[in-house]
Specification:
Largest sheet: 6 strands, parallel
Shape: globular
Oligomer: single chain
Order of helices and strands: EHHHHHHEHEHEHEEH
Number of strands: 6
C-alpha cells in the first residue's frame, strides 16, 4: 500500500510572482517613515520572512515602533495595490503551476499544503483570486507562527494531516524554506525561478528549473 504523502508549498516566489507589489509596498513602507527604500535585491532577499522580522533586517538602525509603523504601511499599500488589479493579476501564477497543482491534487497518495509568510487575510485573497480555495488541506500563515526558518509551520502541517516527516516535502524558492524543511526533519525541493538564487538553496535535496519537473522530482525523492 502506498503511503499518504504531503507536499507543502511556499507561495511568493514559488507559486506566484508577486514581486511587483512587494517592491512597491516596501518602498511605500520606507517612505511612510521618511527612510530611504532598500534596493530590489535587498527586498527580494527577505521575501518569505514574516514582516516583523523582515523590517528590522532591512532597517536595523530604526526602532521597534518605526518598524511596526512600516509593517502597517506595507500591509495598507499591498491591500491597495491588490484591490486595484485583483490578486490574480497582481500576483500571477508561474507557468505550469496550476497544471502541476491539479495533477498532484488528483493523486490518491498526495495531500497539498501551504506554508507562507503571508497573513491569513492575504493568503485567502490570493487563493480566492486564483480559484484555489479547496486545493490545500493545510494552510500555515504568519499570523500564528514564528517566522521562517523556524519549523513551526511545517510541524503544524504534519500534525494537522497526520503525515510522518519522512513522507512530506517542502517546495520553496528561498533558503528560509529549505532551512525550515531541514529543521522540521523534512526534505526540500528548491525552485530556480524564485527570489533567491539556486546556489543559496544549499539545504535543498533537489532543485528544479521548471514546474512540470516537480511530479517526477517528488517520485524520485521518495525513492531515495
Amino acid at each position: 500500500m502506498t503511503a499518504l504523502r504531503l507536499v507543502v508549498f511556499d507561495v511568493d516566489g514559488t507559486l506566484v510572482d508577486s514581486q511587483g507589489d512587494i517592491l512597491a509596498s516596501m518602498a511605500m513602507a520606507f517612505e511612510a517613515v521618511g527612510a530611504t527604500p532598500p534596493s530590489r535585491k535587498e527586498v527580494l532577499g527577505i521575501v518569505g520572512l514574516s514582516l516583523d522580522v523582515a523590517m528590522p533586517r532591512l532597517a536595523p538602525d530604526l526602532d521597534r515602533d518605526t518598524h511596526n509603523a512600516m509593517v502597517d504601511a506595507y500591509k495598507a499599500s499591498y491591500m491597495t495595490l491588490r484591490a486595484k488589479s485583483g490578486a490574480a493579476q497582481s500576483s500571477p501564477m508561474y507557468p505550469g503551476a496550476r497544471d502541476v497543482l491539479e495533477t498532484l491534487s488528483s493523486r490518491d497518495d498526495i495531500l497539498l499544503g501551504i506554508a507562507t509568510g503571508k497573513s491569513r487575510r492575504g493568503l485567502d485573497k490570493l487563493l480566492e483570486g486564483h480559484g484555489l480555495e479547496k486545493m490545500f488541506v493545510t494552510e500555515q500563515v504568519a499570523d500564528f507562527h514564528p517566522s521562517k526558518p523556524h519549523p513551526s509551520m511545517l510541524q503544524a502541517a504534519l500534525s494537522e494531516t497526520g503525515i510522518a516527516q519522512e513522507d512530506a516535502v517542502m517546495i520553496g524558492d528561498t533558503s528560509y524554506d529549505m532551512d525550515m524543511a531541514k529543521a522540521a526533519g523534512m526534505r526540500g525541493i528548491g525552485v530556480a525561478w524564485g527570489y533567491h538564487k539556486p546556489e543559496a538553496l544549499s539545504a535543498a535535496n533537489r532543485i528544479i528549473d521548471r514546474f512540470d519537473a516537480l511530479p517526477q522530482a517528488l517520485d524520485d525523492i521518495w525513492k531515495d
